[in-house]
Design goal:
This protein is an alpha+beta fold. The chain is built from 7 helices and 25 strands.
C-alpha cells in the first residue's frame, strides 16, 4: 500500500478520527484508524465500538491496500508537519512508514480484517435536515444533558420525530432544554424516539456543518450522512421520561428582560455565590429584577437589572449557573421569563419565539 497526500487534505478528517478512537481500549485495535486506499479515493474509519465515523477523500492511491494505524499517533505526527507538506505513506509487512520532507516515522499496524466495523441494519425512519440547524439544536439540548447520572437515560439527548419536525430534548433532573428543527421525511412514516449517548452528541457537535444532512433512525442505532462523512452510533437502550409533564403551562406572571443585561448581572452576582451551592435569590418587581446571593464567608451581593413584569411580584431562588446557561440556549436579545411562585419551575424563552425553550427548577431553601 502506497499513498501520497497533502497535509491539509487529510488533517481535518484525521482530527475527527482521533477523537472517535478509544484512548484506553479494551481491544488494541480500537485505538487505530482503518485506512483503505483504492484507485479513486481513500477511506478512513474509526470506532470505539459504540460510535463510528467514516470519511472519504478523492485521492487516488499509488498502490491500493488497507491497514490500521494508531489514530492519535498518526494525527499528532501529521499536525506537527509544516504547512503544505506532502505526506508519503508506505506499508511494508506489519509496519507503516510515513515520510514528509526530511522527517521519517515508522508505526506499527494491525490487520485490517480484524477491525470491528459496526453493523447498520435497515432504517426505520429516514429524513433530511440542515446540518447547521441540527448542530444548533444539539448544542441547546447538550447544555442540560446529565453527566455520569445513575439514571443513564439522562446521559444523552432525546431525538424525537413527529410530523415534519425533529425535537431535541435533554434534562439532568434540575433543568430542561428543548429545540425543534424542520425534518423532511415520508408523510406515512411512524413517529420515532431515540436517545443519543453523551459522547455521540459531543462528536456530532464537532463534525456537523451547514448543508443537507441525511439521518437514518433504526431501533437501536442512528446514522448520519453529510458530504463525504458518515457517522453511526448505538442508542441508549431505555425509555426517556415524558418531558412534556414538566413543561409549565399557563404561567400567570411574565417578566421581560434584556438578555445581555441579565447576563451581566448574573456574572456579577456569581462572584459572591458559593461554589458548592451557587444559590441566587431572584426578586421580580414591576420594573426591575433584583439578584441577591451570599456565601459561607457571609459575603453578600445584590445587583438589579431593568425589567418589565406583568403579574404578581414574587421571589424565587435558582442555581445562578443554571440561569447563566440561558445565554447558550436563547439567542434573542429579549428574554421572557414565565413564572408562578417560589416553588414552581420557570420557563425561559425568547420574546418572539418559544423555540428553543429552557425550564429551570427552583431551589427550595
Amino acid at each position: 500500500m502506497k499513498l501520497r497526500i497533502q497535509k491539509e487534505e487529510i488533517l481535518p478528517l484525521l482530527a475527527a478520527m482521533a477523537s472517535i478512537a478509544d484512548r484506553r481500549p479494551v481491544q488494541a485495535i480500537l485505538s487505530h484508524v482503518l485506512l483503505r486506499c483504492g484507485d479513486d479515493d481513500i477511506q478512513l474509519l474509526a470506532t470505539d465500538s459504540e460510535i463510528q465515523l467514516s470519511g472519504h477523500l478523492p485521492v487516488a492511491a499509488v498502490e491500493a491496500g488497507e491497514t490500521t494505524i494508531p489514530a492519535r499517533k498518526l494525527y499528532d505526527i501529521c499536525r506537527t508537519l509544516a504547512d503544505n507538506s506532502e505526506i508519503h505513506l508506505h506499508k511494508d509487512g506489519q509496519r507503516l512508514t510515513l515520510r514528509s520532507g526530511s522527517a521519517r516515522f515508522t508505526l506499527p499496524t494491525l490487520p485490517a480484517q480484524d477491525f470491528p466495523v459496526m453493523d447498520q441494519p435497515p432504517a426505520q425512519l429516514q429524513g433530511n435536515c440542515d446540518g447547521e440547524d441540527l448542530q444548533r439544536a444539539l448544542a441547546v439540548a447538550a447544555t442540560t444533558m446529565a453527566h455520569n447520572d445513575t439514571r443513564y437515560y439522562l446521559n444523552g439527548v432525546l431525538m424525537e420525530v413527529g410530523g415534519q419536525t425533529m425535537r431535541l430534548v435533554a434534562t439532568d433532573g434540575h433543568r430542561l432544554a428543548k429545540m425543534e428543527i424542520p425534518f423532511a421525511h415520508r408523510e406515512d412514516a411512524d413517529a420515532y424516539q431515540g436517545i443519543l449517548p453523551r459522547k455521540a452528541v459531543l462528536e456530532l457537535l464537532r463534525i456537523l456543518a451547514a448543508g443537507d444532512t441525511v439521518c437514518h433512525f433504526h431501533t437501536r442505532g442512528f446514522v448520519l450522512e453529510q458530504g463525504q462523512q458518515q457517522f453511526a452510533c448505538r442508542l441508549i437502550d431505555a425509555n426517556y421520561p415524558d418531558y412534556r409533564r414538566v413543561i409549565p403551562m399557563g404561567q400567570p406572571s411574565r417578566c421581560q428582560v434584556n438578555r445581555q443585561s441579565f447576563r451581566a448581572a448574573l456574572q456579577q452576582i456569581d462572584v459572591i455565590a458559593s461554589d458548592k451551592n451557587p444559590v441566587c435569590s431572584v426578586q421580580f418587581h414591576p420594573h426591575e429584577i433584583i439578584l441577591r446571593s451570599r456565601n459561607e464567608e457571609q459575603e453578600e451581593g445584590e445587583v438589579s437589572v431593568p425589567a418589565n413584569l406583568t403579574g404578581s411580584a414574587t421571589e424565587i431562588s435558582f442555581n445562578a449557573r443554571y440561569l447563566l446557561d440561558v445565554q447558550q440556549i436563547v439567542s434573542e436579545e429579549e428574554l421572557l421569563l414565565e413564572i408562578r411562585d417560589s416553588s414552581s419551575s420557570a420557563l425561559i424563552r425568547g420574546v418572539e419565539s418559544d423555540n428553543p425553550l429552557y425550564i429551570v427548577m427552583p431551589i427550595r431553601l
